[in-house]
Amino acid sequence: MSSEQRPIAPEKLAYPADELRTPINVLAPDTRNFNFNIPSIEVLYRAIEQIQLNSLVPDDIKVQFDTARNLFMHSFYVYRFYVVAESQALTTLEFALRECIGKEQIKLFSKELKAEKLRFSEGLRLYMEYLARRELIKNEDFPIWHNRNRIAAEEAYRLEISKRMEDEGLSEYTWDDSEIDESKFDVEWNYVEVLCNTIPKIRNKYAHGGKTLHNQVLRSFENISIIINKMYERTQSSKPESNKQ
User: Fold this and answer.
1) Distance CA 119, CA 54 (A)
2) Considering its fold, how many domains does the chain have in total?
3) In the chain, at which end, N or C, are there fewer CB atoms within 10 A of the end residue's CB?
């Protein structure tokens, strides 16, 4: 039997994974989503619609960010769109930074850094450093920073459970929130510094291509929207009234 005559399995036609879609199956869910409690596109949409750019952000930046959000939503049909969506969101961040801060300010800032014997190539890392030093983004802007002690407490509890199960020969253990003592933790965590170091690396990784495939991009979208919103809010508030949009 020739390849043209070979029958196609119904499940392959109904639920394609990475191959080119056809007009018939273009809206078939990518079933890999079902493994991560995403049973419908409505579930994904409800998470994505909460992440928005505010009214101070120019429309051309919002359009680029909505392109990323649309890719994010269509990941329900094409699982590989998750990383494409994150890449587009990071590109939008870089675009927003250039538009809001401008090349002249970055040149002056670069001279400041050189005086301190610090050098960053003119790119996303330099712009992120500008945001941090000018306090256009702050740790308290990010929900994860406020939850840092809870995160540390849960991780410690998780390790405690594992040890208890091993020591007592238990096959299962019921997670009990009342056993988690967040008051024991006072985590010092400069989340802005973490973002300054990690965001450019992720952006560069996507720019050079690779095999990365995951769906954990919601936090990235949240962080990018916060960075853009806070940057525009704080640069706008520092302008004279006559220069505001």
Assistant:
1) 33
2) 1
3) N
